[in-house]
Amino acid sequence: MQTRLRASGYDVAAGRRVVLTGGACQLAGVRELAGRALNKQVRIGRPQSVSGLPASSAGPDYATSIGLLIAGATMPPMFSTPKTLPFATGNGPERVAARLTGGLLG
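Now predict its structure.
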């Protein structure tokens, strides 16, 4: 895994820390395994509290979806239309980001 991360160039871009989200990150030993495999500090992500949501949504299994909802609600207007993204025609990480953003917004 570390070799593929280095080859892609994301080993440096990712920094020294990793945040795991989703229900699978609650499996026993996953945090430690990810730390060894990625050679990074790893923590389990928990979502911000959002009024109106039940207490059961406070676990890491909801961190990604709540984060995306908050990001979408606070995103500047220029990012609400994928065709206007300034990096949509780039190469490498920019192209991947454009595809992911376009898929989420469009």
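The two ends are 31 Å apart (CA to CA).
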